[in-house]
């Protein structure tokens, strides 16, 4: 009886504690990315979620995927627009603005959609899903979902069938997984970041993280001018490495 009670206690703890992202370990992929440059600001000692949760850390179907979080800086977004005009469909670009920033910059996000970028969900107020109720999480996700629908209508484009959610800071729990599943979302995290452990790196250092990313990497940038400058330096190296023409 005592053993049963102890087992129940540990299961209960797992259910109520948030899962902190572990970008280098994803059970849905059989091979962990082989790299010394893929970095994260997450604690690598936590237990990853089961593969059935559908959480994505890498995407081996593409050479690399550029993702840009937050979306609050208009100068940074304008630099990204310039890059998409220059390189077109040469690189996959997924945008994860939080809802309030998306609403403030709808015109720029509509331009990015028409240039081939996709807009996905990053909560409405950029809150970390730590000590949050299921109702709070659902409100954050669904409010942003409505904002995304609006910007796709503004761009006069069809929203992609696959919808991704990226929890700020990589924090999520079983409620997050359930809410995403019920509303047609998959959780996308990352395995490479330009600000490991929150470090304020130079443009050249950030660029090095980008162009050193292993094949299949999901690369996390933020809507900062420094990150866009780093992407501008790194893209020619990545495209040349994979033999992708700029178009």
Automatic annotation (TrEMBL):
GO molecular function: hydrolase activity, acting on carbon-nitrogen (but not peptide) bonds
Keywords for the protein's UniProt record, in alphabetical order: Hydrolase, Signal
SUPFAM superfamilies, alphabetized: Glycoside hydrolase/deacetylase
One of the protein's GO biological processes: carbohydrate metabolic process
Domain spans labelled NodB homology: 62-247
InterPro entries per UniProt: Glyco_hydro/deAcase_b/a-brl, NODB_dom, Polysacc_deacetylase_ArnD
Signal peptide: 1-21
E.C. number: 3.5.1.-
Keyword Oxidoreductase: no
Pfam families, A to Z: Polysacc_deac_1 (PF01522)
Name of the protein in question: Putative polysaccharide deacetylase
The species this protein was found in: Coprothermobacter proteolyticus (strain ATCC 35245 / DSM 5265 / OCM 4 / BT)
């Amino acid at each position: 009886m005592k053993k049963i009670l102890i087992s129940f206690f540990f299961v209960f703890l797992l259910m109520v504690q948030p899962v902190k992202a572990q970008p280098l370990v994803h059970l849905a992929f059989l091979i962990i990315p082989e790299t010394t440059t893929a970095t994260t600001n997450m604690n690598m000692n936590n237990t990853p979620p089961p593969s059935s949760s559908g959480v994505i850390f890498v995407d081996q179907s593409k050479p690399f995927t550029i993702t840009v979080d937050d979306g609050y800086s208009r100068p940074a977004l304008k630099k990204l627009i310039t890059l998409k005009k220059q390189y077109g469909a040469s690189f996959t670009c997924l945008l994860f603005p939080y809802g309030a920033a998306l609403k403030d910059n709808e015109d720029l996000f509509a331009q990015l959609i028409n240039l081939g970028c996709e807009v996905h969900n990053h909560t409405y107020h950029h809150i970390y899903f730590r000590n949050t109720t299921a109702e709070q999480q659902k409100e954050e996700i669904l409010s942003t979902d409505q904002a995304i629908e609006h910007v796709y209508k503004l761009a006069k484009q069809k929203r992609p069938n696959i919808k991704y959610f990226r929890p700020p800071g990589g924090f999520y729990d079983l409620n997050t997984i359930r809410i995403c599943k019920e509303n047609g979302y998959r959780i996308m995290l990352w395995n490479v970041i330009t600000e490991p452990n929150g470090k304020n790196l130079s443009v050249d250092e950030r660029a090095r993280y980008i162009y050193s990313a292993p094949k299949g990497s999901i690369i996390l940038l933020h809507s900062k001018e420094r990150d866009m400058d780093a992407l501008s330096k790194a893209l020619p190296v990545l495209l040349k490495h994979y033999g992708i023409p700029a178009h």
